[in-house]
Automatic annotation (TrEMBL):
One of its GO terms (molecular function) is nucleotide binding. PANTHER family: BILIVERDIN REDUCTASE A, GFO_IDH_MOCA-LIKE OXIDOREDUCTASE N-TERMINAL DOMAIN-CONTAINING PROTEIN. Transmembrane segments: none annotated. It comes from Mycobacterium dioxanotrophicus. The lineage of its organism: Bacteria, Bacillati, Actinomycetota, Actinomycetes, Mycobacteriales. It holds the Pfam family GFO_IDH_MocA. InterPro entries: Gfo/Idh/MocA-like_OxRdtase_N (IPR000683), Gfo/Idh/MocA_Oxidoreductases (IPR051450), GFO_IDH_MocA-like_dom (IPR055170), NAD(P)-bd_dom_sf (IPR036291). It comes from the Bacteria. Residues 121-230 form the GFO/IDH/MocA-like oxidoreductase domain. Residues 1-113 form the Gfo/Idh/MocA-like oxidoreductase N-terminal domain. This is Oxidoreductase.
Length: 344
């Protein structure tokens, strides 16, 4: 386990409880390393990967994003399988280098797109695939809270990897075009609130993503609006994490001018039902899947290529921020850095 910070300690809690693993925490802050070893006396400790790479089989990397590329490459070159937290890297070049290194060596490279291991999100995908919602018209996501401000990337690179991966997972393809509205309110360099529009292939629904470090409410919500029913996934609810709304608008007659006659719009308001979703911690599912992939050679459900695809979208958001317009995802192969100044 590389990095015992806010998120790394959750991985350690999980890894320390999985059978058949010997866990080593690699952390370059001595106080954090000491804390890890006091809490988990059975784990080994080291201050750098160099010291212990020769006795390891695999690493989970939960350092700040800018270190994912170099540390991931170091691990793969040392012959270690790697699960890298999102975003896979902070540039397309670094992410592609990780994917190439894994492919060259045959090692497992997996990215921590945790929400694809979330039972409510998986059930939402099944609901869409079953046709129950009808044709998906659009997806809307909100990932808001007061904080946590990150030093080395903007709110898009910090939070939107989840929503980009969720929307891509639900629609079965990656975005081709992004538009961004972003604003910096605190500090000097990074946008802390952003709205993204993701456009997918021809005929596919768009996704609208709202991410914020500057909001009074903690919100983790995915809304899927279909032409038959609508669904809301609320990851913060204990008991109703996926609701299906049997509501909609009946196709209204068009007036002579081609406009809608608002007086004749008919609204259908049927039952709102809550789907049963058994709670299993998504991080446990994700990390167990990684260990399984390492042991069996199975390809991860979120392989390095998915991490690279999401980084391409993130790099396109930088381009869209700079231009104040829209960016094509495929044109951002040379995307360089995650913290572009936002065009205000
Ligand atoms: N999947 C999720 O839901 C989720 C949630 C939160 C954070 N994250 C991701 O987890 C990663 C870590 O985030 P965080 O909030 O825990 O950051 P953090 O700053 O709290 O912790 C990072 C830790 O890594 C250590 N570190 C940095 N470089 C190192 C190196 N080369 N070797 C050893 N230790 C090193 C730091 O000392 C620090 O303790 C980020 O990529 C973040 O995006 C994912």
């Amino acid at each position: 386990m590389i990095g015992y910070g806010y998120w790394g300690r959750n991985h350690v809690r999980i890894l320390a409880g999985l059978p058949g693993l010997h866990v080593t925490v690699i952390e370059n802050r001595p106080d954090a390393l000491r804390e890890a070893q006091q809490r988990y006396p059975m784990v080994a400790g080291a201050s750098s990967l160099d010291e212990v790479a020769h006795v390891l089989d695999a690493v989970v990397i939960a350092t700040p994003p800018h270190a994912h590329g170099p540390v991931g490459l170091q691990a793969l070159r040392a012959g270690l399988h790697a699960l890298v937290e999102k975003p896979l890297a902070t540039s397309v070049r670094d992410a592609a280098a990780l994917v190439d290194a894994a492919n060259d060596t045959g090692l497992t490279l997996m990215v921590g797109h945790t929400f694809e291991y979330n039972a409510a999100v998986q059930k939402l995908k099944q609901t869409i695939s079953s046709g129950e919602l009808g044709r998906v018209l659009y997806i809307d996501t909100a990932r808001l809270n007061l904080g946590r401000y990150q030093g080395d990337c903007n709110v898009i690179w910090d939070l939107a990897p989840h929503d980009i991966s969720i929307a891509s997972y639900l629609l079965g393809e990656f975005p081709r075009k992004v538009s961004v509205w972003a604003q910096r309110n605190v500090g000097r360099h990074h946008a802390d609130v952003a709205y993204l529009r993701l456009d997918f292939g021809e005929g596919s629904a768009p996704a609208f993503i709202h991410v914020s470090w500057l909001d009074p409410n903690k919100v983790r919500r995915i809304t899927v609006v279909g032409d038959r029913k609508m669904a809301v996934c609320n990851d913060l609810s204990d008991t109703e994490r996926l609701r299906i709304y049997d509501v909609g608008v009946a196709t209204p007659e068009l007036c002579g001018s081609g406009a809608i006659d608002a007086a004749n719009v008919a609204y259908r308001t049927g039952d709102i039902t809550s789907r049963r979703v058994d709670f299993v911690e998504p991080l446990l599912v994700q990390d167990s899947h990684f260990i399984d992939c390492v042991r069996t050679g199975r390809r991860p459900d979120t392989p390095g290529e998915s991490g690279l695809a999401v980084v391409r979208v993130l790099a396109a958001t930088d381009e869209a921020c700079r231009s104040g317009g829209t960016a094509l995802v495929e044109r951002t192969d040379e995307g360089e850095i995650a913290t572009a100044e936002v065009a205000l």
